[in-house]
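Sequence and fold
=================
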Amino acid sequence: MEPTLNYSGELYRKGLHLLALLYPVGYLMLGRQWGLAILIPLTITAIGLDFLRAKNESTHAWFDRFFGFMMRPEERAYDADRPPINGASWVTASFTVLILVFPAPIAIVSFVMFMIGDAMAAIVGRKLGRHPLGSGGSSWEGTIAFMVSGLIVAHLIGASWVPFAPFEFATSALFGAVLIAGALEAAPLPFNDNIIAPVGAATFLAAISMLG
């Protein structure tokens, strides 16, 4: 097992994560009832497989053989006492939680913005990051990439002044949501950023919507 995930593995990892953008697309096509009927069992299955590979060496070896090259070291660890949840499971759980808790427009804008921003932060930060941001392994370059790409995406799908945007939010609300998500993504918090960052953004958008 490599001590760290190499850049090639990072690219594959973020490419897989970006496939999760099919979640909101599928949800919009199927509607809430069918969307949740798929998302909830899928989340339970994904996390259940992580627990299984932590308890069963053969299952762990199979996952590591085919997917280990794009897992972080802590995700590849065989630890029956502390089952490691991999990034793909966290992403699936993230969208499910967002859809369960928040209105669909808020959940989708927050999720899509975070997924694009997180991918750009990793790709740019790993390649060009020269200035550390705090002690969590993030860089200013990666965080700026998150903010810029997140703002662009959030406005393309959620700005009230964009004619083809499927959702309508004030520009100031989208700016605030992206700033919160970027800060949470970069901060060395004891929570998985795939959950805490988009939920933070969604919470802000929900609060602004209520006040408005």
